[in-house]
Design a protein that fits this description.
With 155 residues, the chain is of the alpha+beta class. The chain has one domain (9-152): Chorismate lyase (3-Layer(aba) Sandwich). It contains 6 helices and 6 strands. The chain has helices at 9-13, 18-25, 44-50, 82-85, 100-104, 144-152; strands at residues 31-41, 57-66, 74-81, 111-119, 122-131, 134-142. A 6-stranded antiparallel beta sheet has the order 1-2-3-6-5-4. The longest helix is centred in the C-terminal third of the chain and has 9 residues, at 144-152. It is globular.
Length: 155
């Protein structure tokens, strides 16, 4: 993965709340714009990673994350298997435009497995979280506008 832009590497491998990190970068500005929320069958690679049966349904939420710019910085996709929605993760099905990170990292530090890949839309980090016994995936794709912003606003 040596072709990852140097300024993007810290973001792809950062631990903790991306919500908080983007809020800090945006000097307090952060917004979630949900795009879609629906039930879908788990894809093979996601089911395998979470050790879930392939035939299971999941709740999938896609949204855009904005910082201090009018153009979105990140495209996020969260995948919650039905088994997790029957437990504490059920709260994520009803959070609307609130960021998942506000709930996920509140007084807890969830176990996280991470993989980084290049998708058509940009460099992406996928995190498989185990939170209060629930497994789910949060995928964050850093869009070109974000790369431009961090390139032009180096600290």
């Amino acid at each position: 993965m040596s072709d990852i832009p140097a300024e993007l590497k810290p973001w792809l491998y950062a631990s903790g709340s991306l919500t908080q990190q983007l809020t800090d970068l945006g000097k307090g500005q952060f917004k979630v714009q949900p795009i879609s929320e629906q039930f879908q069958r788990l894809q093979f690679h996601d089911a395998k990673w979470m050790h879930m049966p392939l035939h299971h349904t999941s709740w999938v939420r896609e949204s855009l994350l904005f910082g201090s710019e009018a153009i979105p910085w990140v495209k996020a996709k969260s995948i919650f298997p039905i088994l997790s929605l029957q437990k504490r993760a059920r709260i994520f099905q009803h959070i609307g435009s609130k960021p998942i990170g506000w709930f996920l990292f509140q007084r807890t530090n969830p176990v996280c497995e991470r993989r980084v890949l290049l998708l058509e839309e940009g460099w992406t980090r996928q995190s498989c979280y185990t939170w209060h016994g629930c497994k789910f995936i949060v995928q964050e794709t850093f869009l070109p506008a974000f790369e431009d912003f961090i390139r032009n606003h180096k600290a």
